[in-house]
Amino acid sequence: MVPGVRNVPWWGVVSSAAGPVLLAGGWTLAARLQPPSFDPVTDTVSALAAVGAPGRWVMTLTLTVVAVCDIVTAAALRPARAAGRLILVAGSVAGMLVALNPQHAGGSLPHAIWASIGFGGMAFWPAAAWRRGPFVPWGLRPVVCAGAVAALVALTAWFGAELVTGGGQAGLAERIVGMVQALWLLAVVLSCRFPSRAISGSAAWAS
């Protein structure tokens, strides 16, 4: 543990690592239960949990459990500012509500609203989580957090553009966004749990 920085408990590492594994496993299994016409590049994750979809329960359960993992991780991410952790929780709760408000034929307004809030929360939480100081883990430094938000927003915008324009890669874009969000949360947790020994001498430039 770095002096002056509260550490992340072991269960926070477990929950943050479980998120991307469960997410990838869930949408892979759910896709295998779909008819041959299903295309993971074109068809979204929401289609896997849509009303009437074969194996809908797999994706619904996956989204719910991953959201719980993210909430647990937010509770464990003690080095981050409270505002960022609360935004992460809000985005995770929205993810649960996405699962509880599945997509219907022709679209679903509640599903779209909660999905937008979920993607927004998962993209912007680093903007409110950063800290200053010589002992701040690299994943919570201002410059790093700003870069993470920029990348997550850009990826989310790509997904939105695919949905609006029907570019044919909405499924691919959504999966990339979801996985990057999950992996970034894991990276931040690891940066707090296993900080660099050289952090006291190298963090000042980013603070």
Describe the structure.
With 207 residues, this protein is mainly α. It has 8 helices and no strands. The longest helix is centred in the C-terminal third of the chain and has 24 residues, at 142-165. It is globular, with a radius of gyration of 18 Å. The two termini are 19 Å apart.
List the helices and strands and how they pair.
Elements: H1 10-32, H2 45-48, H3 56-76, H4 82-100, H5 109-129, H6 142-165, H7 170-193, H8 199-202
Helix pairs in contact: 1-3, 1-7, 3-4, 4-5, 5-6, 6-7
Amino- and carboxy-terminal Cα gap: 19 Å
Strand content range:
under 5%
Overall pLDDT: 89
Q: Using DSSP, what is the number of strands?
A: 0
User: What is the N-to-C order of secondary-structure elements (H for helix, E for strand)?
Assistant: HHHHHHHH
Main structural class: mainly alpha
What would you report as the Rg, rounded to the nearest angstrom? 18 Å
Throw out a few tags for this protein.
207 residues, globular, 68% helix, mainly alpha, 8 helices
Short structural summary:
The chain is mostly helical and 207 residues long.
